[in-house]
Amino acid sequence: MRAMAVTVVAICAVLAASCSSAPASGAAAAARHAGFAHRAELLEQRWDSDVRDGVPAASIAPLRAELARSLFRSTPASSPTWLSNDSTALLDSLDRRTASAWDAAMAAARQAAIALIAARSALAAQDAAAVTAGAPAAGDWPAELSAARTPGAINALAAGWWASLGQARASAAASAQLAAQFAATVAPYGGVAGLIVAADGALTMARAERLDEGNVASLLEALQRDVAAASDVTAAVNGLLGPLQGLRALLGEHDYEAAQLGTLQQQINRAVSTATTHASGFSSAYGDIAAAFGVATNAGELNAVEARIRALQNQVNADLDAAVAAALAAQLSATGCGNKVPMGKVVVVSLSQQVASFFQNTCLLSSTPVTTGRPGIRTPQGTFHVFGRSSPAHFVSAYGPGSPRYYTPETTQYALLYEGGGYYLHDAPWENPADFGAGSENGPSGSHGCIHVPTATMAWLYSWAGMGTTVIVTG
Predict the structure, then answer these.
(1) Residues 429, 387: one domain?
(2) Residue 89 lies in domain
(3) Domain co-membership, 31 together with 120
(4) Fewest CB within a 10 Å sphere: which of 180, 185, 384, 388?
(5) Structural contact between residues 298 and 312, judged by C-beta atoms closer than 8 angstroms
(6) pLDDT digits (tens, 9 = 90+) for 413-434
(7) Which GO terms describe its cellular component (predicted)?
(8) pTM (predicted TM-score)
(9) Residues paired with 356 in a beta bridge
(10) What are phi and psi of 382, to 5 degrees?
(11) Residues 466, 351: one domain?
């Protein structure tokens, strides 16, 4: 009975010890919970204040979110979690990052403000007249910046500075833009001095050809007076440019028509030497056109001359084509057959003789002098077949101007493609008729691999040689 009493007393002693420690632990957890809540409230207040003072809300938002989703936000004061973690690490980290966000906002605001100070100084050095007279002195701005204590205060200063510089900067930019536009305007002439030389040269050429020079002379004199007086030449330059461009275009049109007349004269000479049907009247018509060209002074008159040149060129070419066709028909009736060539239509080109011969069912129809590839770009030998036809045909070199294979863009009336890689039989209106034949491949008329055929013959060949026509190129 005594032993049982002792045991009961012992159990009660143990229970008493446990019951006395529980209130102490609960008090510690509650204290830590209260400490967390207090520091969290201080952080929220600081964040609100910092945002009002100019710290970007985006910089604070991640910190607010981290605190909101923290375990400590939802843990009751009675939870034993507070005994193992008092939230100090989290709160200290948020404190440090809050300070960093403040420092970053201050640094960004200061950097922007310093850039404005530098911009104003640069503007004043470049164009002092463009700086607004009522703007604060540049030396005051660094002092104001030094006195500012928050990002918001610095940003407010920068906004004011920006406003005070806005008009001045716009004025300076407008002046610079006008200067750049003016420089670009006269750059093609090499500057104002070059423009004067160009205008004087255009006037000299126009007077030599008795062309209408318009008011270019008086405008040029006005510009020269402004230059001599060191005055602003902008208005004088702008006034001269348009009329000068018109005069230069007129000179270009005049030169083009002169070249067309030269080509037409060559065609008429061929017609006369061939004794074509209407050759006797071509020279008289040419004389009338040349006389009209000689007295043409403006674009309208030159355009009328060009139309007359085109019309006469068409008549001469038609006469030449008819003469060639008649000659071929006469030759066909007198030519023997049985030549050693394939049956059907065949073109045989001799590179050594620079001659092309045309056969049909072994009968020789005609021959013509030609021009083939120049040294280094010889026309390839072999047996080929026509597989492409173009009328007209436009040729553009695949090589750059520095290459020996380069040629300027050209247009021909007839072209027969007989070999891949761009090998054609085609007319060459730029080649003098007397240049075709033996040795022409080694002269300036040598081709870049194609076979040049006189225009009149090529017109017949284009109508005669269909797809599949055999082309044999021999040595």
Answers:
(1) yes
(2) 16-137
(3) yes
(4) 180
(5) no
(6) 999 999 998 999 999 999 988 8
(7) extracellular region
(8) 0.44
(9) 349, 368
(10) 140, -175
(11) yes
